[in-house]
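FAQ: What does a ligand-bound record look like?

Like this one, built around fe (ii) ion:
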Amino acid sequence: MEQELLEKFRTWFDDYVTGFFSEDEYVNSNLKMKQLHSRRTCSVTLELVDELELDANQKRIAETIALFHDIGRFEQFVRYGTYNDARSVNHCQLGLQVLRDTNVLAPVDKAERKVIEKAIEYHGRKELPSDLDDQCLLFSKVIRDADKVDVLYVITEYHKHYRDCPGDFMLQTLLLELPDEPGYSPEIVDGLLHGRRIDHKELRTMNDMRLLLIGWVYDVNFAATLKQIRERGFLDVLFDFLPKTCDIERVRRTISRYVDSRITAG
Ligand SMILES: [Fe+2]
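The answer part, i.e. the structure of the complex:
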């Protein structure tokens, strides 16, 4: 893929998103949020692919995936008024549909296009399919990691805002309207102590959600991603919002040891 094509995609993306803006400021702000998320995910991806020492063409493919990974979000929000897939539509599948209907990827080489589409299709799945070829697997892992880094950025920024303006309910909306009470589920703590990923179905409070996000480290593919997460202090912000109990202190130590050991191992 040529650099020129990637530049065209960046312009196309902004034009496509702009086409959804209307008089409705609530809708606009939600669309803007995903537009910025997509752009930041591109930056995170570029840092990651540098660390992974991918070649120039692979970097352009990875950035294209990052730019378009949530392309279904805009139509989703305008049509259904929510980003909740369970209450609307699978945004990854919708994204694929958008890419096909608009034919934006037509100038991309067929094999590369397939990799881009697969990575977008699978970015929101709980697990990646086991039968992916090397290229699909590599780029799927990159977008899943980069997406997580930016989601952690957004959520920790909301937390900082919440600390300053606790009456503002933005954070609660973002964290699935879970009650912000002092407790947390012991099963979730236990899961994190044993390296288990936490499922959304287990969540009862906002603290559970914070623990789930912390547990994402177990689902991160690359040590380089863990390095970004550690350096940007996301885990510290989440731990600051959790109760100061022995359980949570144990989780903090376990997670910190895990992250350090993976970074050291490379
Ligand atoms: Fe997504």
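Follow-up question: can I read anything off the structure? Yes, for example: The chain has 13 helices and no strands.
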